Amino acid sequence: MQKNYLTIKTKGSNEVDIKKSRFICNIARVQNEEEANNFIESIKLENKKATHNCYAYVIGQDDHIQRASDNGEPSGTAGVPILDAIKMIGIHNTVAVVTRYFGGIKLGAGGLIRAYSNATTKAIESVGVIEKVLQTEITINVDYKLFNQLQYHLNENDINIIDTQYTDKVSVIVAVDNHYIENFKQDIVNLLNNRVNMVDGDEKYFELDFNPYKNNKKD
């Protein structure tokens, strides 16, 4: 059964410097292992002179595919911390490669674990997180004189507005959670005294901004 899930907002990178070593995390969305491995190889190719190119990825809404590699670092000090950082935030279909350029100072096992974990977390923070929400498109057709009332209602109820088209009428295309469709339609009918026409569209995933740290903040 399909469900909503979190992933990164966009492909990107971030660098942290720890005791003269550079840790560069490149991160991307992937849909399968082939895409993940292609991304890993591209980063390795770009960083041939790096000391290490360690990585981890999770694929599937239930993370049924998980891989991690220390790429020459002491066992358990790189790949698993990268993987844990991804899983801690709860994102899916994501690959992260942390490239290390050694600065001459050894960090020890604990230092390496913190460094690889921190580099990954900072990269995720820098690109942002979105929620992939399974919703159905609904086109709402109204007369111009009712548009402001409709728009206010949609904004007040945080309805996902996809597009607005202006012809002989105003057509507002929204995306609504599947379990809420009937209630949503009834609310619109009541709001506009049935002076509205609504047409169902496709069911698909839409991307909504998400703050994974919101619920962890203290008052």
TrEMBL record:
- Name the source's superkingdom: Bacteria
Pfam families recorded: DUF1949, Impact_N
Cross-referenced InterPro entries: EFG_III/V, Impact, Impact_N, Impact_N_sf, Impact_YigZ-like, Ribosomal_Su5_D2-typ_SF, UPF0029_Impact_C, UPF0029_Impact_CS
Any signal peptide, and if so, which residues? none
Domain UPF0029: residue ranges = 140-195
UniProt-listed Gene3D superfamilies: 3.30.70.240, Impact, N-terminal domain (3.30.230.30)
Q: Which SUPFAM superfamilies has this protein been placed in?
A: EF-G C-terminal domain-like, Ribosomal protein S5 domain 2-like
Q: Where is the Impact N-terminal domain?
A: 19-124
Q: Which family does it belong to?
A: Belongs to the IMPACT family.
Name of the featured protein: YigZ family protein
Tell me which species this is from.
Answer: Apilactobacillus timberlakei
Source lineage: Bacteria, Bacillati, Bacillota, Bacilli, Lactobacillales
